[in-house]
Amino acid sequence: MQVKDMMFDGHPHVLKAQQFSRSFAEKVFIPLSDRIQKMLAVRSCSHLLDGKGMISLFTAESTRTRGSEEIAFELLGGKVILSVPGAKFSSAMGKAESLVDTVRVLSDYCADVIVVRNDSDTEMPIAEIAERIQTPIINAGDGADKDKQHPTQALLDLYTIHTYLGAIDGISVAMIGDLKNGRTVRSLCYLLAKWKIGKLYLVSPPGLEIGTDIKEYLAKHNVDFAECNDIRDVAGKVDVFYQTRTQTNLGSAAVDRNDPKNGFTIINGEVVRMAKEDAIIMHPLPCLGEIVRAEVDGDHRAVYIDGHKGKPSQLKCGLITRMAGHLLVVSPEVACSLL
Amino acid sequence: MQVKDMMFDGHPHVLKAQQFSRSFAEKVFIPLSDRIQKMLAVRSCSHLLDGKGMISLFTAESTRTRGSEEIAFELLGGKVILSVPGAKFSSAMGKAESLVDTVRVLSDYCADVIVVRNDSDTEMPIAEIAERIQTPIINAGDGADKDKQHPTQALLDLYTIHTYLGAIDGISVAMIGDLKNGRTVRSLCYLLAKWKIGKLYLVSPPGLEIGTDIKEYLAKHNVDFAECNDIRDVAGKVDVFYQTRTQTNLGSAAVDRNDPKNGFTIINGEVVRMAKEDAIIMHPLPCLGEIVRAEVDGDHRAVYIDGHKGKPSQLKCGLITRMAGHLLVVSPEVACSLL
Amino acid sequence: MQVKDMMFDGHPHVLKAQQFSRSFAEKVFIPLSDRIQKMLAVRSCSHLLDGKGMISLFTAESTRTRGSEEIAFELLGGKVILSVPGAKFSSAMGKAESLVDTVRVLSDYCADVIVVRNDSDTEMPIAEIAERIQTPIINAGDGADKDKQHPTQALLDLYTIHTYLGAIDGISVAMIGDLKNGRTVRSLCYLLAKWKIGKLYLVSPPGLEIGTDIKEYLAKHNVDFAECNDIRDVAGKVDVFYQTRTQTNLGSAAVDRNDPKNGFTIINGEVVRMAKEDAIIMHPLPCLGEIVRAEVDGDHRAVYIDGHKGKPSQLKCGLITRMAGHLLVVSPEVACSLL
Fold first, then answer.
1. Phi-psi map region of B10: left, alpha, beta (phi>0 left; psi -120 to 50 alpha)
2. In the structure, what pLDDT confidence band is assigned to residue A90 with cuts at 50, 70 and 90?
């Protein structure tokens, strides 16, 4: 299957943003997502995965990600045959087993795909677990991997940018906030490096700079990037504001944003007023204060929850691209037939 | 749509007991529930919501309410496309976001209705959240609102009374227990005030009396009510015993029922022996000692778990009326066609 | 219905391993499971329970058991209309009600079967709860009963043994580990006693010996058994190694396996090398160190997670037999038609 080869580095899983080529994104993923967006509007896609089953296994609840993965599958006609919203329950009962064992157990239960979220850094990385089983795995966020990743988020972010700006080449992006432990930022950097983007600004408080591994990757792929710690210095130059929260659940210390030593890494009315007219403001959510919602929510550039100009919000792009991902993983031939 | 107008104060949501008129209850809700009761018995209603999707979002688990809302939807042929039984999980991971944001996120996920339970008093009231989204919301219990409400419980209670007593006008009701924080009692008072009931006895331990707002509402609607703290004083006069537990989860202090200062607000064999032959004993459950189960459960007047005379229990009335509610919210034209 | 009579001691529930006769196992349960195994491989069983609904109620999460019960039902075309993965949520909110009340509540919600796991020893035993309701109950593990049981696990274990060894008569079995509180061991003893097995070795650390009630039962049924505390003494003689974890969640103290006073009750490479070529190593999982996985997992005799020789793993046998169980409980006439 040609499409399958393009998407998956020779395996059936969605594991890391690096596995997706520019060609795959442009010829398969974005057109397929566009098609699904139109079908979803008239609900004409609700039998594409009839008879297929999905399992979701989250070591910690994530209403957004679990929600959109499960609903995406159900809207295609599939069944979520098992949902485990917080696998640590077992642990609380003194019956904890390793994540890899749990996934191996579930892989024997006839699902067509298993969506896994891992927020613990003591478990085997999802990419290694995937090598041990046959059932396709979708990495819905891995905090264990030293190469922390959230590849489905990167795909939805890419699709959001493409939807609003019409292109990836040439755009300038500011990644803002906790770039050290934010796995969405890491995955999005890997993916954007496949294009010739304009400038990439990495805006973080001191101590939460992006990892050296990412900087080396960006340099190797000739991405023009710069680091700073005040978003106001670059706000007028960027097409995409990609704001993120401090990942206290993945090991980052909380940041006192009132301390000037920590730079200026929030988006408020002041930043919005500096922004280009057709820039967009994105956030993977949840948002915990790093966007001053009262000053930003209503602006036409804020696309994280509300869409504008008849286009889907970033959230809705997540639902659409996860539908595309499920189709490609579970029924690539059906996905092909829609292109 | 005429029915829709009757049910919903000009919006598509189920938010407060006050929004339902007597005319809506008598001409639409009760006949529809009767019809569903018959269809359910022969399982002829299992395709009425084919292709429709529901999301349930509970900040704290409630097996009963979540169970009957979800099962009601599934029994009509719909799909529960996402179930979040305890939204505070996120909070435990330091990722807590506001309830309003979570509902806004979920409202972008193509559900036809979102059922929300909120047990926290620091979140935005469900009725205010509903103003910010398009997807219909069903309030499955709100502890945030200063006007604490549980409107679907009020509807099921009304239907139970009507099922057993054949009328609402003229009946006398004793509300017993924690009337201060019990949202089911508050919602039922709002609803019963639309009829000309007989006498309403408000029987609570000192300190847990019903709020002034409700008393003012009752007075304004010419409901004849009296307060006391010993159910035995009025047990022989009432048609409906509506017993409730102390709402320690909503802020009430536990009550020592052995202390005579706290009055007598339980139902035991003694109270049952005083009761009219055709009275009914109701409880929204869970029951935590305020009914002496060993002395009351077997009595033909106790309808909270077991039905009598071929009629559904209060619990089963909950399932039936939640099916009616889903139909009215999601497919009012289908609901109409059944009348 | 003849089949129903064979399976269920005159009631519609799955409660205790003793209720299944040898004749039922050989003429109904094993052939039905074989049939389902073949149907599952080609997915030709996915409409056998169309229109049927299941509820699962677990007082503590068990990914494995809840997963296989729910997926088994869904793979047959049924719907899990409500899943309660941790009924103690209510408790945390100060609204705890008894398990029997919760089951009674759920039994009024139109399910065709309720699967119940109870890990608390303060609740009414599942077998007594079942006497109070009409809806069929499947006991998915009961820790409350003084006669602790896990009958569906016993059925899957029996089927695994039969699948690999072709017979039950004549085989020798070593039960290893915490035999005092391990409910899977107790249930499997009850079931195996219906055959003429070879020798039964009960291998436990001192203090975790099997209960007197089981020993009396075995003696009464002429099972030849012996107790010891070093698996190496009997490893060369047994056909089935049935390893179990220490049930700290059901009241057992943790065992220091490095202390020689505690005997030798693990399976490692040394034990495997002593084992017969066609023996099998089983474990109900989760495994918490009592099998040295790095030394045992790859061996062809280890069947707990991986199957061998084209045969299903013990886990997969669980899925298959739970499908058989659901069919027998919910639609015995359909089950019959497959034999």
1. left
2. very low
At residue B292 the predicted structure's pLDDT band, cuts being 50, 70 and 90, is very high
Q: Would you say residue B91 has pLDDT above 60?
A: no
- Is residue B134 within 8 A of residue B11, CB to CB? The reply is no
Domain shared by A331 and A280, yes or no: no
The C-alpha torsion from B181 through B185 and B188 to B189, rounded to 10°, is -80
Question: What is the residue type of A177?
Answer: G
> Do C305 and A104 lie within an 8 Å CB cutoff?
yes
Tokens at residue C269, please?
């490479």
Token pair listed for B51: 């292709």
* C175 and C310, same domain (yes or no): yes
Mean residue pLDDT of chain A comes to: 92
Distance from CA of B133 to the nearest CA of A (A): 11
Same-domain status, C122 and C206: no
Strand ranges for A73-195 from DSSP E: 79-84, 113-118, 137-142, 173-176
Task: Say how far apart CA A57 and CA A129 lie, in whole Å.
Answer: 13
Q: Please report all neighbours of A, defined by 3+ CB atom pairs within 8 A.
A: B, C
Nearest of A273, A204, A208 to residue A235 by alpha carbon: A273
- For B20-45, the DSSP string reads --HHHIIIIIHHHHHHHHHHHHTT--
- The reply to whether C193 and C178 lie within a common domain is yes
The pLDDT of residue B61 is 79
Higher pLDDT pick, B176 / A123: B176
Which of A36, A47, A61, A252 to probe by mutation at the B interface, max B CB count within 10 Å?
A61
SS3 label, residue A74: helix
Indicate the residue type of A80: V
Residue A311 is predicted with a pLDDT of 97
Chain A residues near residue C86 by CB distance under 8 angstroms = 89
C-alpha torsion A71→A74→A78→A82, nearest 10: 60
Rounded-to-integer distance, Cα C50 and Cα C46, Å = 8
The CATH number assigned to the domain holding C298 equals 3.40.50.1370
Q: What is the pLDDT of residue C119?
A: 85
Residue B16: C-alpha distances to residues B96, B314, B325, C175, C220 (Å): 27, 20, 13, 59, 65
What are the tokens at C214? 């089981």
Query: What separation in angstroms does the CA of C105 have from each of B158, B315, C94, C134, C285?
Result: 19, 7, 18, 12, 31
Residue type, B111: A
* pLDDT one-digit tens code per residue, B46-70: 999 999 999 999 988 788 899 999 9
How many domains are contained in chain C?
2
B-interface mutation test, from C66, C91, C98, C105, most B Cβ less than 10 A away: C105
Please tell me the predicted confidence (pLDDT) of residue A216: 97
Is residue B169 helix, strand or coil? coil
Q: How far apart are the first and last CA of chain B?
A: 14
Least confident segment among A205-214, B87-96, B209-218:
B87-96
Largest CA distance in chain A: 56
Instruction: Count the Cβ atoms, other than its own, within 10 Å of residue A62.
Output: 23
Q: Please indicate, yes or no, whether residues B82 and B207 belong to a single structural domain of this protein.
A: no
Residues C28 and C17 in one domain: yes
Residues C40 and C117 in one domain: yes
What is the separation of C-alpha A312 from the centre of its chain, rounded to a whole number of angstroms? 16
Helix (H, G, I), strand (E, B) or coil at A199: strand
CA–CA separation, C139 and C144 (whole Å): 11
Q: Are residues C131 and C112 in the same domain?
A: yes
3 state SS of C199: strand
Query: Domain range holding B13?
Result: 3-149+318-337
CB contact under 8 A, A71 and B96: no
